[in-house]
Amino acid sequence: MKIVGLTGGIGSGKSKALTFFKNKGIPCYQADLAGHKVLNENPEVKAKVQAYFGSEIYTSKGLDRKALGKQVFNNQEVLQFLNGIVHPAVRLDFQNFIEEQQAPFIVSEVAILFENGGEKRYDKIILLTAPEALRIERVMARDGVSETEVRQRMQNQWTDAQKIPLADYVIDNTDWTTTENELERVYKELLQ
Q: What is the pLDDT of residues 102-140, one digit of tens each?
């Protein structure tokens, strides 16, 4: 079974592309969702996060992601600390997910795949790209955040130019019809 990484900068359309593969019956894993789950449900992770950020970082509804984001996105050291707690737990969760699957390939959506040296864990990597202005517009509309907040998040991700040489498939997601055709081509190739 091939392990396929699906990545791209914030607002590049990873989730929509992942839905394409889900609709084809391909098992799909979302690292961001797994990270949220780990932060809210893994007792070890929660204890470490509370010890570092304070117990008020969790509310009765779970992790206060906005409060955490304000501390993390402006501070590389804090972000690295958080990633050092969350990423190993997500990798373990992903390993368990892989072991449960029976398919020709699986797709894992990972926002910061290359930034963490994760490319070694995948047989193939699909990179979605889109013009920066379009990505910013998409995220502002999706998350209800300012352009400044989107740009702060982008600072923690590599540029497309850095990622392109490392990807097996590069798909420009400016127009969904074209993107879908490219995803269909990649899907057929991965089935072989």
A: 999 999 999 889 987 889 999 999 999 999 999 999 999
The verdict on 108 and 192 lying in the same domain is: yes
CATH code for position 8 = 3.40.50.300
What are the backbone angles phi and psi of residue 28, rounded to the nearest 5°? -125, 145
* % pLDDT > 70, the chain: 100
Q: Which of 16, 15, 17, 11 lies closest to 186 in space, CA to CA? A: 17
CA distance 148 to 73: 11
How does DSSP assign 12-66, residue by residue?
S-HHHHHHHHHHTT--EEEHHHHHHHHHHH-HHHHHHHHHHH-GGGEETTEE-HH
Q: Which pTM was predicted?
A: 0.87
More confident of the two residues 191 and 70: 191
3-state secondary structure of 116: helix
- The answer to whether the CB of 38 falls within 8 A of the CB of 87 is no
- Three-state secondary-structure class, residue 170: strand
> Range of 114's domain?
1-27+104-192
**In angstroms, how far apart are the furthest CA atoms of the chain?**
51
CA atoms within 13 A on the CB side of 87: 14
Which pLDDT tens digit goes with each residue over 8-58? 999 999 999 999 999 999 999 999 899 999 999 999 999 999 999 999 999
